[in-house]
Amino acid sequence: MRVPSGFSSKLCTSLCFLPFFFFFILFLSLFKAAIIGPIAVIIVLIGNSAVIIGLWPAHFIWTYYCIAKTKRLGLVSKILLLVCFPLPLALWPILAIAGSLLVGIGYGIFTPVVATFEASGRELGDKLFHYFLDGTWSTIEGGCTIVRDFTDLCFHSYFSYMDELSEKIHEDEHPLDIKLSLVPSSLLVILLAVPVDVLLITTVALYKSPYMLFKGWKRLIEDLIGREGPFLETVCVPFAGLAIILWPIVVLAAVITSFICSFFLGFYGAAIVHQETSFRMGLAYIVAVVSLFDEYTNDLLYLREGSCLPRPSYRRNKGTHNEIFGKTSLDGSVRNQESRRGGLNMLVSERSRTLKWAIQQLKPMQVWDWLFRSCEMNGRLLMHEGLIDVTDIEECILKGKCKKLGIKLPAWSILQSLLKSARSNTDGLLITDDMEVTTFDGPRDKVFEWFIGPLLIMKEQIKRLHLDETEEACLKVLIMSYDNEKPEDWDGKFPSQDKVRRAQLQAILRRLHGIVASMTRIPTFRRRFKNLVNVLYLEAGALSNQEEEV
């Protein structure tokens, strides 16, 4: 094949131009961050500080009141919490304001930078316009959104948790209490564990940080040259240089995170003493947790198997599941080589989507979007059917009574998806006709696993019940209009007279109500739920106008 005339010179010119183009984008993004960043910091810092200081007296008093009132805690637990809580409650405003400052700085700097590099990887009409304006006003709006979500967290979510703590317990439940005889040994373990584990875990993190730095650079450069891994997608290529430059900051953040988490790992020694009723097990945990952390970092960095550090057993049952690092705690470092290789191959196959998911996380999750779109669509249908009316919406807006719209409507939307998935005999959860969510292709985070796991179990339970169309239609009325606490509540309202079948369905509905009630405490839920209520209110107004015209 003949090379076109001047091809070599054009190729060299293009290669020489690339570094200048990259540094131009980098300089422009940093320039925007220097202008927009301080504004975002001021918005986040002042807004969050006002919320923290304004609500701090209420938080202090209400926390003490709920702890003293609750029946979920025993007498010794109450006394310890009432004695120990003044310190964290006094430190809360200081730590929260400092955290707001760090969040504002990070958000104000990185959002304009990422938006500028995103503009270079997208197919846009006027790229120069987007280079200069992307990440400016959106960063300011995002700062206001952070303050709004933080306000929902401090106001709605906090009081919701406290109300749940104050609720009466069932007759078969026992209050959570600790043995008074174990308190001195637990406190002694904390005094020993915190300084020892903080020092040793931080030392391990500092020792492994060069490995993380150079292994990360090596992998990023290999993926960039070979167009593999996170740089397989065209939109991700402009992030290559930025990721390589910012990788030392990621390593530093990992070391700082290890230092902060080491305090909590030290405090957990008291729980070991109480669970195993042994001071000796608490001392063994102080040594073993450093070895566990070392092995965990080795797995993340693909270093040697296990750990060379000693690991005494701190559980009487050696096969006990290790809730600290999410793996089984066994003496020694024996691992199945085949399963580890399979895990690494799966991890490598997932790398091509890692940065793509990170970019999507700048927007609400797909599942989150689906839930509110489904609630909006079902809300419109239920209004036309008379199961939701203007009174329900007005009570939610004016009086805050939002159980029907905030609990029952999302629960019915999720139940519809469960019924559809059960009929289709799918492995996952059908959220649209052409989109199925499973534990394998969904977002990789604990919140998603907590959300999708119980739903998949409920889907299998519904599949075994073999509901017909009449029963499914009745469920819509029952879930929106009744509390569904006892099988007798469905007398004359549900086609089946089988009380066991009714109890199973009511248990599923109660679990759905519990899941949705927990979801309402997520700050973003409140913001999007208010938008949903406004949309339904406008729809109700339009519907009433149509009825008047008729």
TrEMBL record:
Signal peptide: none annotated. It comes from the Eukaryota. GO terms for biological process: vegetative to reproductive phase transition of meristem. The chain crosses the membrane at residues 12-33, 39-67, 79-110, 187-207, 253-273. InterPro entries: At3g27390-like, NHR-like_dom_sf. The keyword Isomerase does not apply. Keywords: Membrane, Receptor, Transcription, Transcription regulation, Transmembrane, Transmembrane helix. This is Steroid nuclear receptor ligand-binding. It comes from Stephania yunnanensis.
